């Protein structure tokens, strides 16, 4: 077995030892920032069930499995790696990114070694949309595993009340779940108290995929554009094989809708600064950190009642039911005639984003970890 290890400088053996399970967290820039900060408080090692090339971290170690191996073999190697490391130098707690495979194997190891495990939900672990084949609940086996992990973990964290409610609805276990949204570094996103432009500049930040429902996005924008001068800029990768681009051509919106592809995190704040309204039409979201980013930037958020938008609906953003293109267009057109309400929503959103920023999230997670290791 080929195992890669990165060792941070200045490790502190007096810190509580945490095994963070799940390499997927490292691939998310916002989650990576959380790990960097938690690594300053704990002796943290990230274990990945797949191999990736990682930059040197100064606050936590990284352990990965080999590049070439079937998924099940990689899962066994992943578990064996954690087992051996714990036997050599015991951990105080396991912390898992999502329920499977890391949460499943972590819960088993937790029972074997009798140390606590925290599981952080990340996506659609308790949801399923059959018509687009999205969500863990579409697989009976995965649904049973996820429910078992959530039931027998010491602590479970959801990203939003919306996600917690999904767990309650589909598993009957939501009452024991704590909610901690992932905040953003608000120093990177500059709030601008500005009037809505002419033309109105809409932005959508999401990968192209049926769960993000760009069909509803384009239908809503077409209705809006027929009544006011506007443009729509999309930022994100295409996982829909050019189908959204084809929709734009079919609808005759080529001179109104612009695709910029994947934009670096360094350049993204500037894109929000140029926008007036974020249109976000997902069928499902566990959170959608782009909402935090838009709120921190002073961009009005209008979208579907999922994820963080559902939690903040009415106070920080405007929402309609998923797939409601005409309803969303009506809401946007009505809002454009209410500049004072727009300004209040943007100010409310900015205050929420700054009060629930990256440092706030890290503080909440640090307290949960400490209380799990040393319960009162």
Core attributes:
376 residues, alpha/beta, Rossmann fold, eight-stranded mixed β-sheet, 14 strands
Description:
- The chain has 376 residues and is α/β, with parallel strands linked by helices.
- The protein folds into two domains: 4-183 and 358-373, 3-Layer(aba) Sandwich (Rossmann fold), CATH 3.40.50.2000; 200-354, Rossmann fold (3-Layer(aba) Sandwich), CATH 3.40.50.
- It is 40% helix and 16% strand.
- It contains 13 helices and 14 strands.
- The protein has helices at 29-41, 71-88, 102-113, 140-152, 161-171, 214-225, 243-250, 268-273, 289-296, 307-312, 325-335, 339-355, 358-373, and strands at 4-6, 17-21, 43-48, 60-64, 93-97, 117-120, 155-158, 177-179, 200-205, 230-235, 257-259, 277-280, 300-304, 318-320.
- Strand 12 (277-280), helix 9 (289-296) and strand 13 form a beta-alpha-beta unit.
- Helix 1 (29-41) packs across helix 13, helix 6 (214-225) crosses helix 11 and helix 9 packs across helix 12 (339-355).
- It starts with a strand and ends with a helix.
- Residues 1-12 have low confidence and may be disordered.
CATH class of the largest domain: Alpha Beta
- Sequence stretches where pLDDT stays below 50 over 5 or more residues: 1-12
Give the helix tally: 13
Number of domains: 2
**In angstroms, what is the radius of gyration?**
22 Å
Quickly give the CATH architecture of the largest domain: 3-Layer(aba) Sandwich
Shape: globular
Q: Report the order of strands and helices.
A: EEHEEHEHEHEHEEHEHEHEHEHEHHH
Report the strand count: 14
Distance between the termini: 41 Å
CATH fold node name of the largest domain:
Rossmann fold
- How much of the residues is beta strand, in percent? 15-25%
Determine the CATH superfamily of the largest domain.
Glycogen Phosphorylase B
Going by helix content, strand content and strand pairing, the class is alpha/beta
Largest sheet: 8 strands, mixed
Across the major sheet, the strand order is 1-4-3-2-5-6-7-8
User: Helicity level, as a percent range?
Assistant: 40-55%
Mean pLDDT: 93
